[in-house]
Amino acid sequence: MEFIGHLWLPIVLATVIAFVASSIVWMAGPHHKKEFTPVPDGDGLQAFLRKAGVGPGGYMFPHGDRSDKAAWAEAMKKYAEGPSGLLYVAPKGAMNMGAMMGKQLLFFLFTNVCLAFLGWHAGLDHTTYRHVFGIIGTAAFMAYFFAAIPESIWFGRPWRNLWMGGIDALFYALLTAGTFGWLWPR
Questions:
Q1: Is the domain of 167 the same as that of 125?
Q2: What pLDDT is recorded for position 6?
C-alpha cells in the first residue's frame, strides 16, 4: 500500500476530473441523445410488468433451462422467432441521482487506485510524463471500455451504443493519463 502514499494526489484528482467529465458528457454530450428509444406502448408494457409482479433484477427472454433439452430447444426456437433480449428492472421509487453519482465516483476512485497500483508496480517511478501517460492511458482505456464489449457480443447491446461509450472511455482515459503523467513522482 506504499503506492497510495506516493500517488494519493493523482488518484484523487484523476477521480474528480473523470467524474466531472462523465457528468458533463452525460448531461451535455450530443452522442448519447439517441442512445435509448422508447418502447412502443411503454405504458402498456409498464402495466404488464407491474401486473406480472416483475421485481428489480435482470431478466432474459426467452429463457430456457439448459439442463432440460426440450425446454432449451423450445427457448432457442422462440429466440430465433424474436423478439428476444434482456430486461433490467430498477427498484420502485424516485430515481436517486445522488446515490448513482456517488457510485460513479467510487467507480472512478477504485479504477484510479488500481491504475496507480499497476503503474507503481510496473516501475514507472523516475520516468517521463510520456511513458506514464502511455501506460496509464492504455490501462485506463481498457478499464473504462473493454468490460462493455461482451454486452454487445452476448446480450444484444447495440454496437452503436458500445462505440459511443468507447468515445467516453477514450476521453476519460486521456484525462486520467494526463493527470497521472503530470503528478507522477519523479
A1: yes
A2: 87
